[in-house]
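ok trying again, last paste got cut off:
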Amino acid sequence: MIVRTEAIVLRTLPYGETSLIASLFTRAKGRLSVMAKGARLPGSRFGGTLQPPSCLQVVFYYRPTRELQTLSESSFAQYLSELGRNLEKLTLSLRMVELAHALLPPEEPMPEFFETFWQVLARLDAAPTRAWNLLPWFQLRLAAALGFAPRIERALVEQIGPEGGELALASGQVRPLSADPEPTQPASRAALRAFAFLARTDPDTALRLHLNPSHRHELLQLTEAYLHHHVPEGFPTRSGRVAERLFETLRPGS
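nice, full thing came through this time. structure:
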């Protein structure tokens, strides 16, 4: 069967002397792997399209019994020019695709989350300031897509005092410090309120959130810990460590 669909490039690996294997998150078929024969040759018909986190229109030959599909065409569907020039934005986008590659189930169409992912990459590319807000926002949308959206209760969030509170890792509940024996992640009031805010808002509103470097680093630790608690097997950490350093050092207002 020939499939034509939109796709986000999550990862590529060289294969042989001339080809690439690409992990794609597609609108039609979910996450799958494709073989791009001859993609590393000069003048290849794939050009420079097969680089994370490119947003593409692709055509591939699909067989349900085959783990590796055959890519025949790829072209840019939305060109993320700023990501290639801005190290901060590139780092954020690479953490997004790393998480998607590791955590999304194979060959399970998720059209609503695909649209979310597609749009957040466009917003990340265009964001004039505070682009870093979109990484924890994306992580919370990914958690919801995987079936464990945080359970935010406004009354509990408002009870958190100056001494801070905690995130209950099993439920995603943001609350004051407690003696509950379940796993929790303590954090400042500012970081916990930001977690609750991002869990319930849209990406454009998320871009208005302002935190100092210490609090935004805490926020990233909260979203990373929450994902890791629910999907501990195979949880990727490599680009996450880079993103943490980025959150610590971003300029005020950026």
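cool. The beta strands are 2-15, 19-26, 30-36, 55-61, 68-78, 165-168, 173-176, 184-187. The mean pLDDT is 92.
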